[in-house]
Amino acid sequence: MFYWLMKYVVIGPVIKAVFRPWLVGRRNIPREGAAILASNHLSFSDSIFLPLMIDRRMAFLAKSDYFTGKGLKGWATRLFFTATGQLPIDRSGGKASEASLNTGLGVLGRGELLGIYPEGTRSPDGTLYRGRTGIARMALEARVPVIPVVMVDTGAVMPIGQRLPRVGRVGIIIGEPLDFSRFDGMEGDRYILRSVTDEIMVALQRLGEQRYEDVYASTVKDRLATARAAKAPASRH
User: Fold this and answer.
1) Could you report the per-residue pLDDT of 117-152, keeping only the tens digit for each?
2) 157 vs 153, 177, 181, CA distance in Å?
3) pLDDT tens per residue, range 146-176
4) Distance between CA 208 and CA 201 in Å, rounded?
5) Which pTM value belongs to this model?
6) 3-state secondary structure of 89
7) Which residues lie across from 213 on neighbouring strands?
8) What is the spatial distance between Cα 202 and Cα 118, in angstroms, rounded to a whole number?
């Protein structure tokens, strides 16, 4: 009830009035049954616009840090993320990754929609990067279709590091579902998982015509951070 109240009465109408989001491909979202919505990731706001613009309820797996803040700001952040259907996960790896997988499978097991960013993190520069294979494992274990989703201009409205959004129009393109039933029972094969993940990334690239690089976005972020750190001492002289 709280989710729908925030979506249609409190938050949703304001966001739609200010940003006038457009959507193409609504018919590709099934009216019922579980599915994974695999989206490119340009901005923090992606997790707001996508749930807002589709008719069914959906959940995103979000960093647990967003749910553990203290004080008034921490409370407001938890409230907002809960209202937008986000679920806390630990991204530290190992057993935490397995717990994240099980959280996602729980959503799909209830016949709901689950949003996943295959790149694993926001693109630092608008490029589409290599996908992580967790999405493939989840799709094969749950035996659900994967629907490619492209967010358009959300990075311009709310770039990385900016706290308040700029006013601008954003869009969403939803592609046709990808069926991986031919790989049923093969979720333990790492080569199959990589093949499925790459197929998803190809679908995203073709749908959104983003520039693609076959390297992880996290690797690029680390390189950029290292480059900034190397320049910092020189800038003081």
Assistant:
1) 999 889 999 999 999 999 999 999 999 999 999 999
2) 7, 28, 37
3) 999 999 999 999 988 887 889 999 999 999 9
4) 11
5) 0.88
6) strand
7) 129
8) 12
CB neighbourhood size of 156 (10 A) = 15
> Which residues of 81-232 form beta strands (DSSP E)?
86-89, 113-116, 128-129, 146-152, 171-174, 212-213
Measure the CA angle with vertex 91, ends 88 and 94; round to 5°.
125
Residue whose structure tokens are 């020189």? 234
Residue found by looking up tokens 């910092």 in the block? 232
- Residues 6+ positions from 110 with CB-CB distance below 8 Å: 34
How many CA atoms are closer than 13 Å to the CA of 96, on its beta-carbon side? 10
The structure tokens listed for 230 are 């190397």
Question: Contact, 217 vs 129, CB < 8 A?
Answer: yes
Q: CA-to-CA distance for 132 and 6, rounded, in angstroms?
A: 32
pLDDT band at 22 (very low <50, low <70, confident <90, very high): very high
Third-level CATH fold of 1-231: Glycerol-3-phosphate (1)-acyltransferase (3.40.1130)
CA 200/CA 163 separation, integer angstroms = 31
CA nearest 60: which of 45, 72, 74? 45
Tokens (6 digits) for 2: 């709280």
Q: Hunting for tokens 């659900």 — which residue is that?
A: 144
Pick the closest to residue 113 from 26, 36, 31 (CA basis): 36
